[in-house]
Amino acid sequence: MMALDTKNFIKSLILKDYTHVCVVPCSFAKYPINEAINNPKIEYLPCASEAVACSVAAGLKISGKKPIVIIQSSGLTNMGSCITSLLKPYNIAFPILTSWRTYKEGDSEIQHQHLAKKLPDLINAYGYDYVVLDQDDIDSAISQIEFCNNTQTICIIKKDTFTKILLDEEYRLSLNYAPRSQFLIVLNEMFGHSDMIFIGTTGNTAREMYNIMKDTKNFYMVGNMGGALSIGLGVAKAGKKAIVCGGDAEFVMHMGGLSTTGRYAKEIDLTYILFDNEQNKSTGGQNTYQKHIDYTLIAKACGFNVHQEVVSSVKNFSQAMLELSQKYGLNFLHVKCGVDDEMPRPPYEAVRVNKIYE
User: Which of these, 231, 296, 233, lies nearest to 261 by C-alpha position?
Assistant: First the structure.
């Protein structure tokens, strides 16, 4: 199998008058995403969730623009309501490119195990057909996308479909903060062998927690992006002490979890640590473009007791965690961090642990 020339692919989309690329990043599609960011002739539109991407694209399409959506297969489930209750009844069509994540035990995230076999069934259940993007012929691939633009057909992307494209220098992040691992070391030292339960969000956070926080009770949420805080709420409502290790992209995906959790601020012992590295690190390191967001102010408005200062040093983090650990209730801490080298995934038996009360 060959790979499509990514620059020519995006150039061809532009020549076909595509105007916007609505994206929730996926590592299988990181190269066309990078080229869409690099190319000023098409607008890159990062979205908090796949449901947002679908709705934004619908708004663009009914307003005379020509959008294309790029997501990953696990995120196609997030689009289900938008597809069945918006696109289908209103007969709105635009290309939806979804990765088809494979699964091999020991070498894949378990979040992809089900859809590795059932993705076509899911698409058909939505009332859509599907095509697999031709990675051998760019004219054929563009014709497939044009077909998806006019019919209720989803386009599937397989691994290694596109040639490598790096982000232009102006779009690369340069962070001078301590890597997240140094903050996780502090957590392990402070709460090792205690009854505190840690919830790690999807992506590299769970990997790093497994490799660094050996002495704490951890739940590694490798899928269900945006749901870590809500899991923490359930744990806390069960009477446990919990700390959620979240991220900036995760924070915005399902913000209803913030308002729901805030209802129980006086009843639970829960701390939400937002590790903000300004990027979707595990899917290619694309900027989340969220500098306009005041995470602390949002958390405060939802009922959290917030640490007012954004923490960016290990020393200040240790002090802040010491203060918060002495306050019963619902707490929030915003931490600016850098990135670590990618660490090994937790083994299957560690991820599949689904009881944390024994």
Answer: 233
Give pLDDT tens digits along the chain (358 positions).
789 999 999 999 999 999 999 999 888 899 999 999 999 999 999 999 999 999 999 999 999 999 999 998 888 999 999 999 999 999 999 999 999 876 566 555 666 677 778 999 999 999 999 999 999 999 999 999 999 999 999 999 999 999 999 999 999 888 889 999 999 999 999 999 999 999 999 878 888 998 999 999 999 888 888 899 999 999 999 999 999 999 999 999 999 999 999 999 999 999 999 999 998 866 677 888 899 999 999 999 999 999 999 999 999 999 999 999 888 999 999 999 998 888 877 776 666 666 775 5
Place of tokens 């269900």: 224
Taking Cα atoms as reference points, which of 220, 185, 216 lies closest to residue 200? 220
Element (H, E) at 182: helix 180-191
Characterize 207-239 residue by residue with b for buried, 16 or more Cβ atoms within 10 angstroms of its Cβ, and e for exposed.
bbbbebbeebbbbbbbbbbbbbbbbbbebbeee
For residues 266 and 297, what is the distance between their CA atoms, to the nearest angstrom?
A: 19
- Residue 187: C-alpha distances to residues 171, 196, 275 (Å): 32, 10, 13
Give the β-pairing of 197-200 and 153-157: unpaired
Contacts 24+ apart (CB under 8 A), 230-233: 230/254, 230/257, 230/260, 230/261, 231/199, 232/199, 232/261, 232/270, 232/272, 233/257, 233/260, 233/261, 233/264, 233/268, 233/270
- The overall pTM is greater than 0.70: yes
